[in-house]
Design brief:
Layout lengths: L1 H29 L11 H5 L2 E2 L6 E2 L4 H36 L4 H34 L11
Antiparallel strand pairs: 1-2
C-alpha cells in the first residue's frame, strides 16, 4: 500500500508540474502581464515589405531590435528558470517529507536545494551582467525585468 501511495503522489506531482510548465505561460500572456514574450520584436513585423521580383520578405530591423530580442531571450530564460526552481523546491519538499529515517533522501534533498539556490544566484548574476552591458550599449529598457 505504501508503494501505491508513493506512486500516486509522484504521478500527481509530475502531472501538476507538466501542466504548470505548459499551461501557466498561456495564463500569463492572457492576463497581459510581463510574462513570456515573443523573441522577435513587433517592430520587425510592422516594417516588413514584400519584394515583388524575388518574392522575398525584406525586414528592416536594426540594432535596437537585436538588443530587444536579446532582452526577450534573457527574460524568457529567467521565467523558465524560476518555474524550474519552483518544481525543484516541490520535489525537495517531497523528499524531505517522505524521507523518514532514510538519511540518503535527506542528503539528496539538501544537495538539490543547494544547487537550486546556486542556480538562481547565477541566473540573476548573469542577468545583471547582461543588463549592465546593454545599458552601456545604449539600450533604454535594459533593466526591464525589474518593472
Amino acid at each position: 500500500m505504501n508503494s501505491l501511495l508513493r506512486k500516486i503522489i509522484l504521478h500527481s506531482l509530475a502531472t501538476t508540474s507538466i501542466l504548470l510548465v505548459f499551461v501557466l505561460p498561456i495564463f500569463l500572456n492572457a492576463a497581459d502581464s510581463k510574462g513570456f514574450t515573443e523573441f522577435v520584436p513587433d517592430k520587425c513585423y510592422e516594417a516588413a515589405s514584400l519584394d515583388e521580383k524575388t518574392g522575398q520578405v525584406k525586414v528592416s530591423c536594426g540594432w535596437e531590435q537585436l538588443m530587444e530580442m536579446g532582452q526577450n531571450v534573457i527574460r524568457n530564460a529567467i521565467y523558465l528558470a524560476a518555474m524550474a526552481a519552483v518544481i525543484s523546491f516541490v520535489y525537495v519538499g517531497y523528499l524531505l517529507m517522505t524521507s523518514g529515517d532514510n538519511e540518503g533522501n535527506r542528503k539528496k534533498a539538501k544537495e538539490i536545494m543547494g544547487k537550486v539556490i546556486a542556480g538562481i544566484f547565477y541566473t540573476m548574476a548573469a542577468w545583471l551582467l547582461v543588463a549592465t552591458i546593454l545599458k552601456f550599449l545604449g539600450v533604454k529598457d535594459a533593466y526591464s525585468l525589474l518593472r
